[in-house]
Amino acid sequence: MRKFITYIIVLVSILVGSMYLLDSIYSWVYQNGAYRNKVMWMHDLKNEDLDYVVFGSSRANNYVIPNIIYEKTGKRGLNLAIQASGPLEIKVAVKEYLKHNTANRIFIQVDHSYSKEKPDRTGQLSWIPYIVDDDVYESFEPYGSEYKLFKYLPFYRYQVFDARLGYRNVLLSSLNKGLDYSESKGYTESIGNLQKDKPYRFLLEDKSNSHFIEINEICRLNNIEVVYFTSPIYKAEGNLEIISNHLSNYYNFSNILHERNLFSNADHVNKKGAMLFTEVFVNSFFTCQSYKE
Amino acid sequence: MAASYVFYGWWDWRFLSLLLFSSIVDYTIGLQMDKTSNLKSRKLLLFLSLFVNLGLLGFFKYYNFFIDNFTTAFTFFGGTIQPNSLSIILPVGISFYTFQTLSYTIDIYRQKLEPTRDFIGFAAFVAFFPQLVAGPIERATNLLPQFFKKREFNKDEAIIGVKQIIWGLFKKIVIADNCAQFANEIFANHTSFSSATLILGVIYFSFQIYCDFSGYSDIAIGTARLFNFKLMVNFRYPYFSRDIAEFWRRWHISLTTWFRDYVYIPLGGSRVTRTKQIRNVFIVFIVSGFWHGANWTFIVWGAINALFFIPLLLSNKNRINTDTIAANRIFPTFIEIVSLFSTYCIALFGWVFFRATSIKTAFEYIGGIFKGDFSIEMLRLERFSFELLPLILILLGIEWFSRNSEFPLCSAKPNYIKVGAVIIMILVFGSFSIAQDFIYFQF
Description:
heterodimer; A: alpha/beta; Rossmann fold; five-stranded parallel sheet; disordered C terminus; B: mainly alpha; 2 domains; globular
């Protein structure tokens, strides 16, 4: 029996040792490998002093083209919106960016996830490798005990999200098969043609969101202006207007584009739509006629 | 027995009554059979056991199938009938423990086994938790006596057991669950894919079903070994078979030998006329297919295997490959490679029916394979890429060099490096985010 127990102890040691080793390797790749997502890119941004930065979900990521804004206004900025991000993930992104960089103005896209306080199951994924950072951990930790395991149990987070953060991603990143965000300044095109044109119905709760309150406070302390906006939807219905009850500097663009050929699906524009929206964006926020600079 | 009942009750405690009822019936029938030497009475008791066990199985597993088919047939001939389908939960493992208890009463009837008077031991045999829900289907002659021996810890068996559990986990988590994601996608959207993708889909399914089921068997046998119980081997590298007869000697051995001993041989086996031999083979394969589930696809799957088996039987070539392939060589000969490949292709053909949701879907799938569109565009998409094939090749490589042993890590030596490598492969390549149930739990 003693020999068997020794055998089990050795196997458990191999298991734990392997988990530590693999965690170190994966984490190193996520810190140093080719960018597989925007958070990896954001981690490498240092000493940027920009005119503006855009945060939000794919509904900001696919909409605002920084290169067009630069051509038209000379304003330097980045689109740091990440797919499926909710208010919590946006707050984490804002905090992460401001750790080593600054900006004069921050634009935040808000819509159906406005009322959401909890992490988004998909939106949080890009942040999971960095949950060992205290700042990131503090933001997620109140929302479930699993975040404790992600931080303290080595390799566990890579196993739980193996399809998105596992060996495939790590291998591609270490083979330098990354995504180049520097040229597009973070904008990503949404490809496809609008098929279903059912109205998108918003059902938001009439209450403030703690994450946006915190973002406002962070920006106030850093002397940064925050602008909230809702980007266009093919057919928007519902109670979007309640956002303006809680966010002072809010602009609703949800109903400004109506042509089918500008959309890749009901709530995302294609490249053509993004170019048109960026024009509107420039006219609304970067020209003297429509916006006080 | 208590541990096994807690284990089963964890799934649904209500069905413990069914397990207990089956145990009481067969225990009692076993004792009654022993009391009488009258053949007629013994036969009556055997029929009672068959009626109760197969009746329960038939009700829970096949009631809706028969009602639906009866309704379809009745409507076809112009009649009208109100179908009365019931919403029945299939008790996990019912097909497995039913056959296990039946082996007990049949063996007593044949006077191959003495009935036990120890009800606790018998109930523990019926409900033995490692193999209760998905086999191997044990014989009373092998497993029951082990419950009456003094339990002694056996270090060597326990170490082998741990290694077998780890190997089973590798097959399930690394190969089966990863293959499942791809196979499910391809089978669900088969009409939109090229022939190449459809071939890849059925290859993935062939390894999913093999590694899912044999992985479970390894975990079950390994767990039993920790308690110094020896369960029967259920898989012997079936994809290294040179003909379909050999394949069936290596695939789900506990079920195929059960059908051989309790159905095929009582029907006369091979010692009857050619016509009856063919009938017997068809009966065994079709019943075996039907055992898997209440769907025509399983019946056709059984019939297809019978069709490929019969030519071997008629030409007396069904037992020419009883040894291990390339037994004293590292590599197989060209002829052996051709035999392996053709047997694998036959198995693949059958798996399409096994996996498809209906006969129509299976024919559509096969039609898709033969439409001759071998473009690789679809394969370039991330979810249908070739990335799993290297893992499958690693599995086959490991199995090839272990084909003379029960499973690849089967020795009482610690093998820390090999076991460590398997553990790392499970951690790195395992599919943890999309957990898949064991396929055979539904049977």
